[in-house]
Amino acid sequence: MLLRLVAGVVVSLALSNLSLAQEPEAKEASPECVKLKEHERDVVGTNHTLALPTGPLAYTVRAGRMTLETEAGKAKAELFFVAYTKDGVEDLSKRPVTFSFNGGPGSSSVWLHLGALGPKRVKMEPEGWAPPPPYELVDNPHTWLDTTDLVFIDPVTTGYSRAAEGEDAAQFHGVTQDVEWVGEFIRLYTTRYERWSSPKFLAGESYGTTRAAGLAGHLQERHGLYLNGIVLVSAILNFQTARFDVGNDLPYVLFLPTYAATAWYHKRVPQELGGDLRKLLDEVEAFALDEYLPALAKGDALPKADRERLVARLARYTGLSQDYIDRANLRIEQARFCKELLRDERRTVGRLDSRFKGIDRDAVGERGEYDPSMSAILGPYTATLNDYVRRALRYENDLPYEILTGRVNPWKYDQQNRYLNVAETLRQAMTRNPDLKVFVAAGYFDFATPYFAAEVTLHQMGLDPTLRGHVSVGHYAAGHMMYIHEGELERLDKDVEAFYGTSAGR
Fold first, then answer.
1. Which of 82, 129, 262, 289 could form a disulfide with 354 if both were Cys (CB 3.0 to 4.6 A apart)?
2. CATH 3.10.20.600 fits 15-240+376-503, yes or no
């Protein structure tokens, strides 16, 4: 997750700074060890039980690092993973397995792991606000583990994953290299744990959706590994939709519905627009494509009367003043919006989740000092992960667990005079594997990967009409990590369960 957020963040909180919820059963508090295979030299296995409304779910966890090698046997990297498998499954060909990761680039898999998919989740306030420290990990009744086995992967330099001794970590920090080595981990895990006959899924968030689209093509073409489905949480496939560069007007248009949703949430739209959010967004989306985009294309040739009308409409939808929009030349950049919307309150709004408010030193300037929505989750997720891995999963490693690091920069995008666009890779994968299905989860208050940008990208993929029904989208009234909101977490779980039901085959 998290596109180019915080450079050089290395977070490792003391274990004494938190309390973990008591496990419901004795063997949860003191997990039984699992007999490991010969190749699992750095892996620890434990047994657990989760109490679900449908009954107890017994499962095994393996946590550790897998060594990735060349065919000549030279060690290249050690990737940290946490794998959850349901106990008592006799026929693995009917049991799905999902490989999950976040993005960044430079993010570990902690967000999906302890936020939505895993059997434990970070306890937040019901709306997603951060509780005061110390933080707590609780049972997750909305875990995907009742539907699919789960394997959380940390790419090189994130989490506990590192380049092998003598290897330059930079060789893994790029679009192509990242896909190749994460793909190698997936191939090796699938082979060693005998999952080639299982329905296979990917679940990625933010840049992890970029990785997932790349993997869909790479796994098919390089290893003949065909997927049943991909879950894209807060998707970005075409980076032109999110780069506010001179000469690229597309982001101004595609961010507009999220500006409107944010203004609606903070009660900055006119009263007559303050009712149904979906109704408002339908109106704004139509305006963005039918009027706003053509107007920006005209540039300085836009007639004065048309410009004045456009300024008024933009002010109505965004909550910003007509004077500000006119001075911005009709182009509202995301960071500026986050600073400007609540300037009169001396508050900013969040990037990952624009429901959150931040406090800057002053109310001048164009950009906020920090992202309040990032600050709200960083501490709780870091503390609980560090405690959970060592105390509950029995894995010990004194390296800092890199939650979100800038050590992967500069990331090699391998693009010359164009923007990275993996939507075409996904189209090709879906065309060659016509049973592959995709579910996109999008938050209305997400400025990192706006929902409308993802939707327009999907519409531009050029899928054959027979395949368009294989892509579905779910919308959620929260931000980038919509699952921090308890109600939206429950909705996401139900949507994903239905998606697996139609995608897993057999």
1. 262
2. no
Quick one: DSSP state of residue 14?
-
pTM of the model: 0.93
CA 186 to CA 188: how far, in whole Å? 5
Which residues in 350-495 belong to E strands, given as ranges?
357-358, 437-443, 471-476
Q: Of all residues in the chain, what percent are helix, strand and coil, respectively (each to 5)?
A: 40, 20, 40
Ramachandran angles phi, psi of 138, nearest 5°: -130, 165
Q: How many CB atoms lie within 10 A of CB 33?
A: 10
Helix (H) or strand (E) holding 61: strand 55-69
Model pLDDT for residues 400-453, shown as the tens digit of each residue:
999 999 999 999 997 777 999 999 999 999 999 999 999 999 999 999 999 999
- Range list of H helices, 272-354: 277-287, 293-298, 304-318, 322-327, 334-340
Sign of CA dihedral 258, 261, 267, 271: positive
97-110 pLDDT per residue, tens:
999 999 999 999 99
Structural domain boundaries in the chain: 15-240+376-503, 244-370
The segments of the chain whose pLDDT lies below 50 read 1-29
CA distances from 478 to 83, 172, 265 (A): 28, 33, 10
